[in-house]
From TrEMBL:
<comment type="similarity">
    <text>Belongs to the bacterial solute-binding protein 2 family.</text>
</comment>
<dbReference type="InterPro" id="IPR028082">
    <property type="entry name" value="Peripla_BP_I"/>
</dbReference>
<dbReference type="Pfam" id="PF13407">
    <property type="entry name" value="Peripla_BP_4"/>
</dbReference>
<dbReference type="InterPro" id="IPR025997">
    <property type="entry name" value="SBP_2_dom"/>
</dbReference>
<protein>
    <submittedName>
        <fullName>Autoinducer 2 ABC transporter substrate-binding protein</fullName>
    </submittedName>
</protein>
<feature type="domain" description="Periplasmic binding protein">
    <location>
        <begin position="50"/>
        <end position="308"/>
    </location>
</feature>
<dbReference type="InterPro" id="IPR050555">
    <property type="entry name" value="Bact_Solute-Bind_Prot2"/>
</dbReference>
<feature type="signal peptide">
    <location>
        <begin position="1"/>
        <end position="19"/>
    </location>
</feature>
<keyword id="KW-0732">Signal</keyword>
């Protein structure tokens, strides 16, 4: 009887051990599933966050840039955050960047409205381990690791000036310059290049007034052009820098019927320019493909964040071959494009 009871106890003990093993095995299986889920979640959360900050959101140029930046994020497997102020205002940009810092993004690429105003907040980002770049417009070069330019700025400005003289059909006369914001570094560099071209090669061209700010608004450019036409009846040409400015200038020229009297050239998108190009109120729009610029910015940000080095002559998919200057920091996407009445319809931006 004792042997029988002992056998039962031993059997029950063995069952308990086996049950424990089964229970332990189930527990490990559950833990493994939890671990895998956590790992997958970590991997998902570990996707590079690249923030691209334009001068402002909502205008066609930066809408096109956004399209390229978002597409690059999808193609390259990174999270692209495209955000900026609603006005071309440095204080608003600072707030946007402060918010991005709090989100602990990996890269901030900014097109500054006022480079000096952004230096403190960009230094703050850099001190917190965030890679800082600029695109479209140079920031403080002591802060950024890459500076992504659309074109060689001086050559671009010179090209715009030469184009104006060609469309005016004369090498003497009065001209005016419209710009976006007075502190925009890229616009100022282009204007400096244009002025150099005029001073060196067209001494009989007279600039009637200093550059005129239009606040990145077509309506302001339109009104400023009407003022110019009234104040300077012998005006023969207008160079307009910032994408809304040429459209506003052309709108005024169109309204006044001055297509044959005043030439207008500027930095505008082909789709927006088409109606003005067709009736001659805008002679030529000179730009590049902004969607490619947005794409390039995200592609280079990813490369930088992953420890890669950008090389001169490197071919960037969906963009093309890029130029890297000797400083190893300045990137040139490529030469500008002339959009005319003949070719504007070939583009979809």
């Amino acid at each position: 009887m004792k042997k029988f009871i002992g056998s039962i106890v031993s059997f029950m003990f063995l069952i308990g051990i086996l049950a424990g093993c089964v229970s332990q095995g189930s527990s490990n299986s559950e833990n493994e599933g939890t671990t895998n889920n956590a790992s997958e979640e970590k991997e998902a959360n570990g996707k590079l966050k690249i923030a691209v900050v334009p001068k402002l959101i909502g205008i066609p140029y930066f809408n096109a840039s956004e399209k390229g930046a978002i597409q690059a994020g999808e193609d390259l497997g990174v999270e692209t955050i495209y955000t900026g102020p609603t006005e071309p205002d440095a204080a608003q940009q600072v707030k946007v960047i402060e918010d991005l810092i709090s989100q602990n993004v990996d890269v901030i690429a900014v097109a500054p409205n006022d480079p000096a105003s952004l230096t403190p907040v960009l230094k703050k980002a850099k001190d917190q381990g965030i890679i800082v770049m600029d695109w479209d417009t140079p920031a403080d070069q002591s802060v950024v690791e890459l500076s992504v330019h659309q074109i060689d700025d001086e050559q671009y400005g010179r090209h715009i000036a030469k184009s104006l003289i060609e469309k005016m059909g004369t090498e003497d006369g009065e001209i005016a310059i419209l710009t976006g914001g007075l502190s925009a570094a890229n616009l100022n560099t282009w204007i400096d290049g244009a002025k150099k071209e005029l001073e060196e090669n067209y001494p009989d061209i007279k600039l009637v007034t200093d550059k005129i700010a239009t606040d990145e608004k077509q309506q302001v450019a339109y009104q400023k052009t009407l003022d110019l036409v009234k104040s300077y009846p012998n005006l023969k040409g207008i160079m307009a820098f910032s994408t809304p400015a040429p459209l506003g200038a052309a709108q005024a020229i169109q309204e006044k019927g001055l297509q044959d009297d005043i030439a207008v050239v500027g930095t505008a998108l082909p789709t927006d320019s088409k109606p003005y190009l067709e009736d001659g109120s805008l002679d030529v729009a000179i730009l590049w493909e902004p969607d490619k610029l947005g794409y390039l910015t995200v592609a280079l940000a990813k490369q930088l964040a992953e420890g890669g080095k950008v090389e001169n002559g490197q071919n960037v998919e969906n963009v093309g071959e890029i130029e890297v200057w000797e400083d190893g920091k300045t990137i040139i996407m490529g030469p500008p494009s002339d959009f005319t009445a003949e070719n504007a319809a070939d583009y979809d931006f």
